[in-house]
Amino acid sequence: MQPGETLITAGNGDTRYARFQPVTMGASGGGANFRNLKVHEPGISWATQEPRWRLIEQLCLGTLGMQASGRRYLPQEPAESPESYDARLRRSICPPYYLRLEQMLAGMLTRKPIRLDNVPDPMVEQLYDVDLTGSGLDVFLQHLARLCIRYGHVGVLVDFPRGDEGDDSPVTDFSRPYWLPYAPRDILGWRTDVVAGTQKLTMLRLRETLTVPYGEWGEEMVEQVRVLEPGRFRVYRLQASRSRDWELISEGTTTMEDIPFAVAYSNRSATLESTPPLEEVAWLNLQAYQCESDQGNLLHVAAVPRYNLFGVPAEVEELSAGPSSATAFPSDARA
After folding, report:
1. Which residue range is the domain that position 327 belongs to?
2. Could you tell me the pTM of the whole model?
């Protein structure tokens, strides 16, 4: 018996030594090995939910997205050559059933304008452009509704530009709070605690992708992780053109006692955990995509005429088939 091993007895009376790894229970109830995460690595709960997002995200990319996934969602048949499979893949069209249903449900949720009562005039004026990109409240909420239906929940961060000196002074006289939506894939990790009888976030890690200038004309996609705590924030960035390490590029304090982050759920299972409400519809859409591919391939094969020639010498070994070619058989062959 080695250190860390335990003697166990099976139901049939057999005994053996087994080594058990220490585990911790996530908020979803699943077990996972202890490990020290880096700032950009997702937590246990994220990893538990992520497999349910993959198919839905590919369906939202349409036919090109499904074709790019290749054999993951359109398997290659036994004895099917790579060339034949590639041709079948290019002919396969994904019907947009899931995407249309998501759009319809989000439209039903936001079909009426938002009514605001007893809201200060300065705040009402800001709601005509809630994200500093020209999106009014109705348009912004429709986008949130689609994300909420797609994943099961969605988050919104209320941010505020900071002064050049890193304090809470405004950048300009016209700076104001604005809203940032975050899909669950970008909510990497979080911690909660019960404060005054209410569960509150004590730490939140959010992943962001930015487009920054590169050289005189170029652009570069960079990733960064925003770490938020009550009264404190940090921003880590990975910029491949400069370094392969995550660098702390900004940090500071705030006067906020809470993390200004709100979550909306459509199928909640726990804090910042949910199940996509249309997951089974997505699988049915995948089945339709595969069936359409099979039916289209059958039609393609059946629609191509194939000519047969009888009486060709048997020593002919190489034959080709197709609408402009023929298959040769010996003179005594029978169809």
Report:
1. 306-335
2. 0.79
